[in-house]
Amino acid sequence: MKEVIRIAVNKDSSRIIELLNSEKMLTSNDNLIYNKGHIYEIINGSKSKTFVYVIDKKIVGLINFMVYKLGRYAEFYIIIIDNKYRKKGIARKLYDFAEDKLRKSGINLIYGYTLENNNPMQIMLEKLNFDKGKKHYFYSKVLK
Fold it and tell me: Residue 142 and residue 76: Cα distance in Å, rounded?
């Protein structure tokens, strides 16, 4: 079994959409789904850093940060592991890999964002020694 963590590229788009839309906890509004525009930004955005976890040429997970180099901080928004591969330490490996890359690039602070009812992510953030901050509310508006 060959495992690798690498930067996401455009050819990964369809699998990334599939993974992201497989979990309702990843959107703050149940009517929203990820589309090609979102994925293009996640992969190619100037501030976005996305890494994928690949086992035997299949993407089984990903992690995404928005990186603000001038402020030397990053915002941790997304981590998703395919249901078949959960509870195998993949999320931790992805996070540790990404944190190491961020640290080496001069980032010295990471904010973690999650939904109030996303208990698995909250547990993970606590295990990773994130400090719990104030409660936030999310609002969205679809422009027509």
Answer: 24
Q: CB 139: neighbour CB atoms within 10 A?
A: 6
Interhelix angle for 13-20 vs 36-44, to 10°?
A: 110
Tokens of 67: 């990186």
Secondary structure, 3-state, the chain: CCEEEEECCHHHHHHHHHHHCCCHHHCCCCCCCCCHHHHHHHHHCCCEEEEEEEECCEEEEEEEEEEECCCCEEEEEEEEECHHHCCCCHHHHHHHHHHHHHHHCCCCEEEECCCCCCHHHHHHHHHCCCCCCCCCCCCCCCCC
Tokens of 9: 């590229």
CA 46 to chain centroid: 16
Residue 28 within a domain: yes
18: CATH: 3.40.630.30
| Tens digit of each residue's pLDDT (9 = 90 or more) over 67-125 | 999 999 999 989 999 999 999 999 999 999 999 999 999 999 999 888 888 888 899 99
